[in-house]
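Dear Dr. H.,

I hope your travels went smoothly. While you were away I took the liberty of generating a structure for the chain from your last submission, since the lab meeting agenda had it listed for discussion. I wanted you to have the full record in hand beforehand rather than looking at slides cold. The sequence, exactly as received, is reproduced here:
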Amino acid sequence: MPTFTAPDGTELAYHLVGEGEPLLCLPGGAMRASAYLGDLGGLAAHRRLILLDLRGTGDSAVPADPATYRADRQVADVEALRVQLGLEQVDLLAHSAAGDLALLYAAAHRERIATLTLITARGRALGVDFPLVHRQEAADLRKSEPWYDGAREGFDRLWAGTATDADFDAAVPFFYGRWDATAQAHAALDVAQTNEAASAAYASEGAFDPPATRAVLAGLEARVLLLAGELDSGPRPQVSAAMAELFPAAELVVQPGAGHFPWLDDPDFFVRTVTTFLG
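The corresponding predicted structure, in token form, is as follows:
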């Protein structure tokens, strides 16, 4: 397991999966260890995945200053990894909440981005978020599922902030396009993969300056792919579409039948879409 030292002295780890040209991957959560990304549905057969464990997660050390969990403070970690890898430019992929970190990195180091791939990614760094009604809208799409009646109340309580552990467990199927054996095994991964304290700090006050970030990324020359899941509750495809409009060269793909982890729902579609974009 290779490691490198962040500018503040924190020892950070990353994992190498597959062969080919490097693809730097940032995990979501927020602040979940990168193990849940796996081989991204077989994408590792085409690219060498560089899976960063963000500070305080996975095999990376806990920083001395917990304020450095804030997304904008972690931009320096991504840049330090690029330098460690000896890459002039990076193909950067981010999932879910890591979309914010990838956007901040692209704004701070625009010339270092070869391509930017945003998978069911958040865009708070751009001032684009999604309301509770989007969660409800996505949940309504699942009414024909056999697990729906036992899961919907828990799902609603989850976003109302009143959920119990049992509610969270019941609501998990909503995050997957298909609640099959693959999804169930993925959902059963150790919940300790997420650093809850770091997650709370990740998007805290001061992390984002949307007008400034939008202004810089309006001049981004790199191509951008936004891949949304048709059934994802956060973000919904219309949110990804709104984000796409803020880039000069963005492509939006909505994966049919996919939830928040599209590489599990239809690996062939996912891998084909990403590899075609990356070229």
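Two observations you may find useful: The chain has eleven helices and eight strands. The chain has one domain: 3-127+192-278.

With kind regards,
E. W.
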